[in-house]
Amino acid sequence: MIGRHMQRTPTPGSTLDALVVGAGPAGVGTAIALGAVDDLLFGVVERGDIGQTFHDWPTHQRFLTPSFTGNGFGATDLNSVHFATSPAYTLGVDYPTGAQYARYLTTVARHFRVPVMTGTEVTGVDRDDEVFVVRTSRGPVRARTLVWATGEYSRPRLPKAVGSGLLDHSSTEAAWALREGRVIVVGGNESGMELACHHVERGSDVLVLDPDTPWDSGRGSDPSQRLSPRTRIRLAEATATGRLELSDRPVRRLRTTAGSIVLSLDDGSTESTPSRPIAATGYSPAIDPVGSLFALRPDGLPELTEDDESTITPGLFLAGPSVRHQSLVFCFVYKFRQRFAHVAGVIAERTGHDRSPLEEWRENGMLTDDLSCCGIECAC
Ligand SMILES: Cc1cc2nc3c(=O)[nH]c(=O)nc-3n(C[C@H](O)[C@H](O)[C@H](O)COP(=O)(O)OP(=O)(O)OC[C@H]3O[C@@H](n4cnc5c(N)ncnc54)[C@H](O)[C@@H]3O)c2cc1C
């Protein structure tokens, strides 16, 4: 694949056909798809290093989607960003840590010669006629289209409880450190369960609070709605110790009293712990510099056309886990990668290029443009 499609390297002052912001899996994957289009002038800017989010993951955090090199038989590694690559092959592990996955992304970006300018933060975006003028820490970049791929990790979400500043978010190293007394985790989805199991495995008593009881089965077959097999196995082991309690009581308020943190719960009861409780309550989209260029859905996520384009700013595309189409959630790599080649194809057409080389992505099962097929439930 490399060498068949030549890409032109951006030069200072030129107007790109496409600028990708962020070099995580969404940015790197979309850039590789753009690189398949002959003569398309594009580049990627990244405020840290390639895969910066994964460099920032706590040391104990691992992927929950397994990697396995099934690529040759139509079952591309779930964590790949291109069908000719596999983290399981590159790394020799099935559940990569953040540092390992960052190594995979860097290897892939180098292999496909993705033009990434690291250490370059986007601080704002202006429009000059039909062109985006992107303000970066290294000066302005002009581009006809923009792919926003800055993920969610830099926007940790805390629960709406009073005193939520007393919580350590799951994205911090502190949340994984050994804690004094009973560990309280607010939020029982994947991250909450992973942390709960982590602390039970290290000998702590753990209480998990979540009114939505994500640990219940019978939530359909979409892994965005139900716990992964790996987490379920760990949850069963943690439950068997007798040191894990799961509760559907929502937290209303947190306060400190005499060396303890007291949580007031919805039913009038309280729980207390000598160490800071943990918030495993997810993330919000990191769209700040372009926030006004997207209309928002009632759930606060960017509203998109069927081409993952802003409904109010033509030429601005979103890639990554914040992509939603009605109730379809694209929060895993194996989901949002299905849109890399679609977005690249729309950009190719808009900028007068041939999108047909991207059919190779479809042939390899990595291009979904008919979204009606994604909601299938497993029969058994
Ligand atoms: C704890 C945890 C576990 C997860 N486990 C899995 C899993 O098992 N399987 C799975 O598929 N997914 C998993 N995910 C989700 C997955 O990690 C994310 O969906 C994925 O990282 C999103 O990729 P992205 O490229 O959109 O964003 P990121 O990987 O966050 O990349 C965004 C990049 O944009 C850069 N950036 C941000 N703002 C700017 C700016 N203004 N200017 C320039 N650059 C900027 C950042 O430095 C970063 O490198 C997990 C997430 C978390 C938090």
From TrEMBL:
<dbReference type="InterPro" id="IPR050982">
    <property type="entry name" value="Auxin_biosynth/cation_transpt"/>
</dbReference>
<dbReference type="GO" id="GO:0050660">
    <property type="term" value="F:flavin adenine dinucleotide binding"/>
</dbReference>
<feature type="region of interest" description="Disordered">
    <location>
        <begin position="209"/>
        <end position="228"/>
    </location>
</feature>
<protein>
    <submittedName>
        <fullName>Thioredoxin reductase</fullName>
    </submittedName>
</protein>
<dbReference type="InterPro" id="IPR036188">
    <property type="entry name" value="FAD/NAD-bd_sf"/>
</dbReference>
<keyword id="KW-0560">Oxidoreductase</keyword>
<dbReference type="Pfam" id="PF13738">
    <property type="entry name" value="Pyr_redox_3"/>
</dbReference>
<dbReference type="GO" id="GO:0004497">
    <property type="term" value="F:monooxygenase activity"/>
</dbReference>
